[in-house]
Amino acid sequence: MKKWYIILMAMITVLTLSACKDATDKVLEDGKVDKAEATDSKKEEYSSVYPLTGLGTNEEVDHRAVSVMVNNHPKARSQSGLHKADIVYEVLAEGELTRFLAIFQSEMPEVVGPVRSARDYYIELSRGYHSLFVAHGFSPEAKEILDSGTIDHLNGMDYDGVLFNRADFRKAPHNSYITYENIQKGMEKIGAEQSDDLDMLSFLTSKSAKTIEGASAKEIMISYPGGETVGFTYSNKKKTYARSSNNEPTIDRETETPITVSNVFIVEAAHRVIDDAGRREINLTSGGDAILIQNGVAQNISWKNENGRIVPDGGAFVPGKTWINIVPSGMEDSVKMQ
């Protein structure tokens, strides 16, 4: 990734979850926003902060995260529920196609899918958020982990037609869906905890986010070896990036809501094909080169695995939703920005 673009590094003040300062800009260790020094008395005071978005709320924030394997085959588009996810990991499976691990915590989808089968590295990513893991099917490596009982999970192989429903507008394996209502029923069925004291990610303050410097990143294109092109287009007004696949906007199937995020994090990791089916082994522990894209600019930094989470090493997210593209080492020439 050192070839990607020579980007001027900016010294960024990263939120350290410390005590009360500049209430409208700081996320505090106890999850509260202090308004004592706010200059605009009309701004809303929040009692809590969502741990995976850094956004203030007056709602309870102790519900457990849910991670769902979402199908990204062209026949599975458009998907359902992705617009509600706090974090989405996009990672290659077989056949040069990516799949999504959608992590929900601040919002829960009414319905999510199509749900697809698990791979071991998606399960490991799910563990980083102590989330309930939802999938339909598994690779041999993933099945071994799921059968070990070390992670709470719901699988369509066990609950097809019970908790998971087959849509009549698509054909298998692109038609498995689950509602959040059924996810809750499933959690009760397996005795999984539904509340959690989830560790908060590190976020920049509003003031620090305005000081980010780097290369212009209003249009991002990631070209995968199989011909798939993932795009992100920046909105100056909304300060978010809208995702697309092969120039087609990524939208929610039911509501047609565009999938938009505040952070795009592209990380390079070693990939290795391990069997005749094209399944992969991906190194998600060693860290490496990365590009962190937010507020219309890109920073050339590194990534690290912090307690199972892929996070910036030398930077932080801005408050909002995050999309993380994990790409094979050597794909630097396939990522273009302007």
Automatic annotation (TrEMBL):
UniProt keyword list: Signal
Q: Which PROSITE patterns match?
A: PROKAR_LIPOPROTEIN (PS51257)
Q: Where are the transmembrane segments?
A: none
**Domain DUF3048, residue spans:** 52-191, 222-324
Presence of keyword Signal: yes
Q: Does the keyword Signal apply?
A: yes
Show the Gene3D superfamilies listed in the entry: YerB-like
InterPro entries, per database record: DUF3048_C, DUF3048_N, YerB-like_sf
Look up the signal peptide feature and give its range.
1-19
The family database entries (SUPFAM superfamilies) matched by this protein are listed as:
YerB-like
**What protein is this chain from?**
Lipoprotein YerB
Q: Which organism is it from?
A: Fictibacillus halophilus
